[in-house]
Amino acid sequence: MPDPNTDPQRDARPTLEAVAARAGVSRATASRVVNGGAGVRQPLVDKVREAVDELGYIPNHAARTLVTRRNGAVAVIIDEPEFRIFSDPFFSRQIRGISRELNAHDAQLVLLLVEGSGDFDRVTRYLAGGHVDGVLAFSLHTDDELPAIIRRFRVPTVYGGRPEHPATEAGEAPQVPYVDCDNRGGAREAVRHLVSLGRRRIAHIAGPRDQTSALDRIDGYHDVLPDAGPDLVVEGDFTVEGGARAMAGLLETHADLDAVFVSNDMMASGALRVLREKGVRVPEDVAVVGFDDMTSVAEATEPPLTTVRQDVEGMGRLMVRLLMERLNSGTGAWPESVITPTELIRRASA
C-alpha cells in the first residue's frame, strides 16, 4: 500500500480537463468560462462554474491573461515621500476607496511610491513590463515625470486631482481623465464663511504651488478677497509642521490678523497648536478654517476644526470606476473627468 504522505495523487490539483469532463463540455468551452471569455451560453456557464466549485479548481493566472489580455492588477502611483503617505490620513482614505472598488472588480492593487527622481526609472521599467492593466496616479506635481511616462507607454490611466499639463498635442494619447473635488468652490465657501463672521484681516496658509489643488484654493481665496495682498498668502507643505511654521510667520508680520483659511487639515492642526502656544484665543481672536475634513484630525484639534469636506474615499472609488470604464470599453473611449462637490463642516474653530 502506498504511503499517503508520498502519494502523488494526494496533492494533485484539479485540471481544466477534469472540469470540462465534469461539466460535460469541451476544454475550450471550460477555458472560456473559467478565464472570463465571452460567447458561452448561460446554461453551460452554470455547469462549468458548478464543476469548478465541486472540484475546487483554481484557475491558472497565466492562462487567464492569455484569454482576457488582462493582468487583473492596477498600479497606484503616489508621488510623495513615504512619511507623508503613512502619516497623512488623506492618503489612507483614498487608498481605502481605491482598494474597496478594485476588490469589487476582482482586481489587485499594486502600490508604487515615488520619493525621488531615481524612482521614476523603476516605475518606467515596471510599466514597460506590462504587469498592470492600468494606472491610478495622484498627488502629482508640476515637474512630475509621470504624465510623460504614462503617455509614452499609453497605459490606461486616471489621475487623482486635476493634472497640470495642458491638452495633448496632435498625435499624442488622448487627454487623461481625472477625479478631483471643487477645490476653488470649497475655498470660496470657507472664506465667505469667515467674512460672514465679521472677520476682515483674513490670511491664507496655502499648499505647495506645484500642485493644482493648492493653486485652485488660492484662486478661491482671491475670488472672495481680490484685494488681499500677497503678504497674506503664505506657502506651506501640507504637513503639521509646515502649517505651524506658516502660522508663526503670520503672527510675527500681521498683529491685526483675525482669521486664517488653511489649505488642509494637517496644516490647520499645526496652526492651531501655534495659536494656543502664543495665547491667541480661537475663535475669539483668530478664526480658523481648514480643508479636507479628515475627521481623525478635525475632531481632535483644540478647538475642533471647522473645515471643508471632500469625499476622499468616494473619489478613490470613482477613479477605479473611470479606469474600468476605459478598460471595458469596446471602442477604447476615454471617460469624462469628474469634479465632486465640497461642503463646509462647521465646528468650534470658526
Structural write-up:
With 350 residues, the chain is an alpha/beta fold. 44% of the residues lie in helices and 15% in strands. The strands form 2 sheets. The protein has a 6-stranded parallel sheet, with helices on one face. Strands 7-6-8-9-10-12 form a 6-stranded mixed sheet, with helices on both faces. Strand 3 (134-138), helix 8 and strand 4 form a beta-alpha-beta unit. Helix 2 (27-34) crosses helix 3 (42-55). The radius of gyration is 26 Å and the shape is elongated.
Keywords for this entry:
350 residues, alpha/beta, 6-stranded mixed β-sheet, 12 strands
Supply the helix-strand structural class: alpha/beta
Please tally the helical runs, counting DSSP H or I stretches of 4 or more residues.
Answer: 14
Write down the overall mean pLDDT: 87
Distance between the termini: 82 Å
Percent of residues in helical segments? 40-55%
Order of helices and strands: HHHHEHHEHEHEEHEHEHEHEHEHEE
Uncertain segments = 4-11, 166-173
Describe the sheet with the most strands.
6 strands, parallel
- The backbone outline, from C-alpha atoms, is elongated
Strand order of the largest sheet: 2-1-3-4-5-11
Range of strand content = 15-25%
Number of strands: 12
Radius of gyration, rounded? 26 Å
